[in-house]
Specification:
binds adenosine-2'-monophosphate; five-stranded mixed β-sheet; globular; binds calcium ion
Amino acid sequence: MDKKLRDDIYIHAIEWVREAGEVIRDKMYGPLDIETKSNANDLVTKLDKETEQFFVAKVKSKFSGHFIHGEEGYGDSPTSLDGTVWIIDPIDGTMNFVHQKRNFAISVGIYHDGVGEIGLIYDVMANVLYHAKKGEGAYKDDVQLPSLPEIGNINEAIIGMNHFWLCENKLIEEQVMQKFVKDIRGTRTYGSAALEFAYTAEGIIDGYISMRLSPWDVAAGIVIVNEVGGITTDIDGKIVNMLDKSTILTCNSVLQKKILGMLKEGRK
Ligand code: 2AM
Ligand code: CA
């Protein structure tokens, strides 16, 4: 992608993410019109929808040839990654947004012909922006993030994951998941995949694993983690498909091999 064009897209994307965050902070204590989607705990609010509509309007007015792949379906729902595609989660961690009023993020990944070029994860309540352009490093606000810690033993690793995967896991034997949790140093559950990617990039957790995420949960995070030398695949070690749901493991490459090896033993 042309560097000048990418810089222009990046500047606008950051401006819109901050503007959307401000609107969310203003409106979040008003009526949220909470609905459920795939199950009783899969929540969506008026602000998820309005925020996505805001991005669709902004992107289409400034970059009319770009496509939008957004969680709430107001974009183009593209069937290919040809061209420039904005992969947007207007609120990642909606349960946190509704119940906790913190620990949710706006996640924007911008891909060109399938390559992740820009990643933005905005922690709305903390007013902290994690951002990266491919090949130019990852930043937390103005501070460049160093390369990931070279932790190579899983017994020193803190891994983000949802406890849900210990009780109902269609892909990995529960006993193997339990052994994994016992063998690592600790788990953390933040409830926002995007923030868990950002924390992995920051090195405050050593990785993040999930058995089911959507492209908008991970698109920005993959770009940011790449820039600090991390790697993201599905739990079989395959590249993540940005047009479909997927399992996810993100961490440094040494841990990745060890964790994939452990999980393979329990693969159903
Ligand atoms: P969301 O809040 O945008 O729905 C919670 O552990 C993480 O998983 C959040 O990033 C959440 O994103 C995502 N998530 C929740 N339910 C999901 C589902 N049914 N499919 C895919 N991702 C989901
Ligand atoms: Ca969401």
